[in-house]
Amino acid sequence: MTKKKKNEPLTGDALLAKVKELEHLSKEEKAKECGYYTITKGGVERVNMMKFYNALLEAKEIELDGKQSGNGRGGRSASYRITVQANGNLLIGAAYTKQMDLKPGDEFEISLGRKHIRLRQLDSEEDTD
Which residue intervals define the domain SpoVT-AbrB in the entry (predicted)? Predict the structure, then answer.
């Protein structure tokens, strides 16, 4: 008798694509179809919803516990909130510049609104408006 090898659960883009493909199924059926289940010694199938949900969050690059994901490098992740410092400055921070793949020397035009600041990168886009 040959034992059936269980496939590894889907992750990342493959997981997101499969979930979209299975939109007509219940969440438990989606988790099972994506490989998030185990079979107990008694032969009972158990769907692991927590691992499924965590894999979905990771695939969407959503961090709930504040830990840096994947690459193991330290530093802060972007929270999309900043506070005016005591000296009146706004510090954007490296998490944002890394996410936008900005390099030292990149220049921006600043436009001020009533309660917002808009940055427009100056380079080859200078001719467009």
Answer: 79-124
Domain residue limits, the chain: 12-59, 76-129
Overall pTM > 0.70 = no
Residue with tokens 């927590």: 50
Q: Quick check: 77 and 65 in contact, CB under 8 A? A: no
Exposed, middle or buried by CB within 10 Å (0-12, 13-18, 19+), for 34? buried
Residue 53 has pLDDT above 80, yes or no: yes
pLDDT in tens, 29-40: 999 999 999 888
Cβ pair 129, 115 in contact under 8 A: no
Residue 47 contacts residue 37 (beta carbons within 8 Å): yes
